[in-house]
């Protein structure tokens, strides 16, 4: 009689356990928001905005409905015109390019650094034309883009910069002089997402913009609120994008634990590093001295047979995710940009070789040991 194989149920993201650990605080915050009877721009939103501003180093914070809206609001705030060109990495989630297209701007893709997975600043200058108006670096998988040389290029060419920080909130960038800033607060504007699976996640959609420029903050707030400073008096064309009070209340609680969440992710990443770092056939995420990696994802590069490896893991009960399997320039929606296959070799290679392992704050010891055990089994390590 065949012996039944005991395969554990391993979640890729474990939001339920995270909630249970802070359940009383979350439930009270939700009830308080309900009792306030102010569900839009209520006290909970203003409280969270102020707390997030303090956490992010004192910058202005403009809450909004989601991370995609935050990007659109940022570009609208900068006053870009149809036909203006915006440089961005081709290895990113579609939202970064989507808002550019919606505003009738033109995406100009740039390849990424093969180790950092973020925009290769060495390629930016070649992409600049007389129509270039902005750069949108993306801090990906919890890893910060190399912002200091990028900002120097932007300043030299009179370009605006918007940081897409949907995946690296809480991370820091260290400049050559030893000073540091939170990722998302370095450029003219920064954006983030509070999608539930993010390091700081709501129980629904949410987002925010960051800036140290008071005028840009005021304009972004206007754009997000129908362009009105006084109700029914519209100073500019805007949109409707607001963080609701229930989500703000939840985020206020979770913000108190964000550094603890990051530390848990880094501890799990260190375990993965120690166990997997010497295995031939895979490459672990690289570290850089000028950024703190907050591990929204733990993303391996698999040298050969990535899809076979993924299927093996799935058969053994280990979930994994391939992020961005089709690069943006090869997506049907962006075919009009006329980038043929082969235009961005690093991104095209990454789309065929990267794989993200389970990464969350509540990983059980037996689960992480099972995961690395199965990876070692596959590679005979």
Low-pLDDT parts are none
Instruction: Order the strands across the largest sheet as they lie in space.
Output: 1-9-8-5-4-2-3
Helicity level: 25-40%
| Biggest beta sheet attributes | 7 strands, mixed
- Counting DSSP E segments of at least 2 residues, the number of strands comes to 14
Number of helical segments? 13
- N-to-C order of helices and strands: HHHEHEHEHEHEEEEEHEEHHEEHHEH
Q: Globular, elongated, flat, extended or rod-shaped: what is the shape?
A: globular
Strand coverage percent:
5-15%
CA-CA gap between termini: 30 Å
Structural class: alpha/beta
Average pLDDT taken over every residue: 96
Instruction: Determine Rg (CA atoms, Å).
Output: 21 Å
Question: How would you characterize the overall build of this protein?
Answer:
The protein is an alpha/beta fold and 381 residues long. The chain has 13 helices and 14 strands. Strands 1-9-8-5-4-2-3 form a 7-stranded mixed beta sheet, sandwiched between helices. Strands 12-13-14 form a 3-stranded antiparallel beta sheet. The chain has a two-stranded antiparallel ribbon with strand order 6-7. Helix 3 packs parallel to helix 9.
Annotate the secondary structure layout.
Layout: H1 15-21, H2 23-36, H3 43-55, E1 60-64, H4 67-77, E2 85-89, H5 94-102, E3 106-110, H6 124-127, E4 132-135, H7 147-157, E5 160-164, E6 172-174, E7 180-182, E8 189-193, E9 207-211, H8 214-224, E10 228-230, E11 233-234, H9 245-255, H10 258-276, E12 282-283, E13 298-302, H11 306-315, H12 345-353, E14 354-357, H13 365-379
Parallel strand pairs: 2-3, 2-4, 4-5, 5-8
Antiparallel strand pairs: 1-9, 6-7, 8-9, 10-11, 12-13, 13-14
